[in-house]
Design goal:
Structural class of chain A: alpha/beta
Distance between the termini of chain A: 90 Å
Number of helices of chain B: 13
Largest interface: A-B, 30 and 36 residues
Strand content of chain B: under 5%
Strand order of the largest sheet of chain A: 7-6-8-9-10-13-14
Oligomer: heterodimer
Order of helices and strands of chain B: HHHHEEHHHHHHHHH
Structural class of chain B: mainly alpha
Number of strands of chain B: 2
Shape of chain B: globular
Shape of chain A: globular
Strand order of the largest sheet of chain B: 1-2
Number of strands of chain A: 14
Helix content of chain B: over 70%
Distance between the termini of chain B: 42 Å
Largest sheet of chain B: 2 strands, antiparallel
Order of helices and strands of chain A: HEHEHEHEEHEHEHEHEHEHHHEEEE
Number of helices of chain A: 12
Radius of gyration of chain B: 20 Å
């Protein structure tokens, strides 16, 4: 009898131990990466896009996908790590930097993630990357554009996305191009026609850094910044801000806003019958599908800094192929947000593949040396290569931006057309803005 | 000049809606000396009531006022009989903490049901339309309608309070509850009615606001603070006080526009550099602070 009990006891112990070991064994085949995005709250629509883009990239990494001419589609999982699969653990920061930092700590200590990706809001990326830096966990930032993020000399932070300094400079180059007749479909105009500028930037990290950039570049390029106001982000009402902008009688209005603010500004501009010659959104809110779907025809003629347009497929094969898969999955084209997170996860896959290890030090060494050629990417960049010296270590040196204009297509629906860079313009620019 | 006139006109317009929002707070305080911290949450519920009714029935958000009013009326009655009635027996601090708890409860309830994302009215007969009155006065149709309907609601409440038997009973209860009880006035019911009227007016204001303001479960706190400033300025318990203070606060919120007028008039560089729009709500709280220090009973206050 005693022997039966002993055998039974040993059996139970064995079963228990094997149950405990199962997840550990399974874990050796997955590489966990924490993905912190705004999945609810005012930027939820962007968060949904970011998540979908990241998920699609992970799916492509984890299995062989035919008809895709990019390296990550060739193998099932990370080949150098015995086909280990990438597992993204999504967390929702709600646009709150403190919550973001807490989630990062939990992901590192509880979930034992190998690395991090995120976070859209520059303010959240700032706190999350600080946590990663403290724990020595690599973070690849796919979607934040505040220039200060790569100026902190962090050793565990890389950014694939070009930052706002380049975008704001692009816009002033574009304005100067208008006076030189370089813009497709617009004859050279006198600089005095577009010299007066007014800007409204939201008051967090993203907007405040852009406010400085706009001031500096306006001066450098010889434009008059008549009004530069900072407003409280997630503003409930912007009528006094719009009145203030209008009073400056600007030719050009610049907005730096996330989605809900961007929609509110356009609605209020319409209600107050504002009619500047040019309206430019420094992305974030202005590029999201929600912005376009909510405002419809009202935004015809509005310019936005853009990251991804389906028309990129005309110059990039990979963009068309990936966008087709994305459309099958989501029912609509990739947006700037989903394209950014796609490239972020893709970069993670390349780094892991080349590192052949999940040790932070190996990842760090590989990330600093990596070079992903432009033909691999869905974005119109020359590639991904992080700076290791200079003022901005960790910043991708091969990124670039687009300026697009909302125009009505043949089906009557509003879509984006590229107007800058001048040599890849897809349509004649509408100038001046017709009014609401 | 355009910006000065435009700003003041916009301030008066929004002030009328803010006044209606603060009316409920002042009625409840006037009746039973209880400060309702959950007032902003009542407004938030009104906003959701208007928005969701419009979305589910397809009717214009402007016509959802009766639904919002009914929701507010019921909410007031339920809160009174289910919660406040018991709080009144406790000390002052229990009443303060009690309504604070009610605020957190309602907010989290909304979070549970509606989620943290924002909701906005995008369609409606008046949404997106505006009238150019000249002199820089551009009135968005939704705000104009909200202001006019606010005034109508205000007049209705004033008539109820001053021209009906129920109004007299309410006033009697607020002046001397014990005396009123001896005269045969059902004071408990009067208190509940005060909560019901307070709830209905604020939810109507919410349904009006949602035509041009977003709603999420956290929107209440901003309005609670503004409502406190209005009630403090107008005098706790004073109906006409709330109206005039609402207008004043509306204009105070437009100080950045008035500042712009002087900036352009004097063509002053340093004035242009002052980030006035960044602090547009600060002036409301500054006014609240000043009135509390200088004249604690407010401009029209009759309760000491």
């Amino acid at each position: 009898m005693k022997r039966v009990i002993l055998v039974f006891f040993l059996f139970c112990l064995g079963a228990f131990l094997s149950l405990c070991a199962a997840p550990v064994m399974a874990d050796s085949h997955v590489i966990k990466i924490g993905a912190i995005y705004p999945l609810t709250g005012v930027a939820a629509s962007a968060g949904k896009e970011l998540r979908a883009g990241a998920e699609l990239a992970a799916e492509i990494v984890n299995k062989v996908v035919g008809g895709l001419d990019i390296t990550i589609a060739k193998n099932a999982g990370i080949k150098s790590l015995k086909g280990a699969k990438i597992k993204l653990i999504f967390k929702d920061h709600e646009g709150n930097p403190t919550l973001g930092a807490d989630l990062a700590k939990k992901l590192i200590t509880d979930d034992k993630v190998v690395g991090m990706i995120g976070c859209w809001h520059s303010s959240v990326t700032k706190t999350v990357s600080a946590v990663c830096e403290r724990y020595g966990i690599p973070m690849i930032n796919d979607s934040s554009s505040s220039p200060t993020l790569t100026k902190r000399g962090f050793k565990w932070f890389w950014r694939t996305f070009p930052h706002d300094k380049w975008f704001v400079k692009d816009f002033f180059t574009f304005l100067t191009g208008m006076t030189e007749g370089k813009v497709k479909g617009v004859k050279a105009i006198s600089k005095s026609d577009i010299i007066n500028i007014a800007s409204a930037c939201e008051k967090t990290e993203f907007g405040a850094s852009n406010d400085d950039l706009i001031k500096n570049f306006a001066k450098e390029y010889g434009f008059k910044l008549k009004k530069a106001l900072l407003y409280g982000a997630k503003a409930p009402d912007v009528s006094s801000e719009v009145r203030s902008l209008k009073a400056a009688k600007p030719d050009v209005m610049i907005f730096v806003s996330y989605t809900s603010d961007a929609i509110l500004f356009i609605k209020t501009l319409k209600a107050q019958k504002a009619k500047p010659k040019i309206i430019w959104g420094q992305d974030a809110g202005f590029e999201t599908p929600e912005f376009r779907e909510t405002l419809g025809g009202d935004i015809e003629g509005v310019l936005t800094r853009a990251v991804f347009l389906p028309k990129i497929a005309m110059v990039k094969k990979a963009a068309g192929q990936v966008n087709r898969l994305y459309k099958e999955k989501m029912g609509h084209n990739m947006s700037g947000a989903s394209a950014r997170s796609f490239v972020g996860v893709q970069t993670w896959a390349h780094v892991l593949e080349q590192a052949g290890s999940t040790k932070p030090a190996d990842i760090q060494k590989t990330a600093n040396a990596i070079h992903i050629p432009g033909k691999e990417l869905v974005l119109p960049w020359a590639g991904v290569k992080f700076a290791t010296t200079g003022e901005e270590p960790g910043q991708n040196e091969l990124g670039s931006g687009l300026i697009a204009q909302y125009q009505k297509g043949p089906d009557g629906k509003v879509q984006m057309e590229i107007v800058y860079p001048f040599d890849v313009a897809t349509k004649n620019m509408i100038y001046p803005f017709k009014g609401f | 000049m355009d910006i000065l006139v435009g700003s003041i006109a916009a301030g008066i317009l929004i002030g009328m809606v803010l006044a209606l929002m603060a009316l409920g707070l002042t009625i409840i305080f006037g009746m039973m000396d209880i400060v309702n911290f959950a007032h902003g949450e009542f407004l938030m519920i009104g906003m959701y009531a208007g928005l969701l009714t419009a979305q589910t029935t397809g009717m214009d958000p402007l016509f959802t006022l009766p639904v919002a009013a009914a929701v507010g009326f019921l909410l007031g009655v339920i809160c009174y009989y289910g919660f406040i009635m018991f709080l009144l027996r406790g000390p002052m601090v229990a009443q303060l903490l009690g309504t604070f708890g009610l605020m957190l409860f309602l907010r989290n309830l909304a979070l549970l049901f509606f989620g943290p994302q924002e909701m906005v009215v995008h369609k409606g007969i008046l949404v997106g339309k505006s009238f150019d009155m000249g002199m820089g006065i551009i009135m968005p149709a939704t705000k104009l309608a909200a202001a006019v309907l606010s005034v109508v609601a205000f007049v209705a409440v004033w008539l109820l309070m001053h021209r009906t038997k129920i109004g007299k009973a309410l006033t009697a209860t607020s002046l001397n509850a014990q005396g009123a009880r001896y005269m045969g006035i059902p004071t408990e019911r009067m208190n509940a009615l005060a909560w019901a009227i307070g709830g209905a007016t604020v939810t109507i204001a919410g349904a009006l606001l949602v035509n041009f303001w977003y709603v999420n479960p956290y929107v209440g706190i901003l309005f609670t603070m503004i409502a406190f400033a209005i009630v403090a300025l107008g005098g706790f318990g004073s109906v006409p006080g709330a109206f005039f203070a609402g207008l004043v606060v509306g204009i105070i919120m437009e100080i950045p526009g008035i500042w712009d007028f002087f900036t352009y008039t004097f063509d002053s560089d340093w004035m242009a550099d002052v980030p006035m729009t960044s602090f547009k709500y600060m002036w409301v709280y500054a006014a609240y602070f000043v009135i509390m220090v200088v004249r604690p009973r407010g401009l029209f206050g009759w309760k000491r």
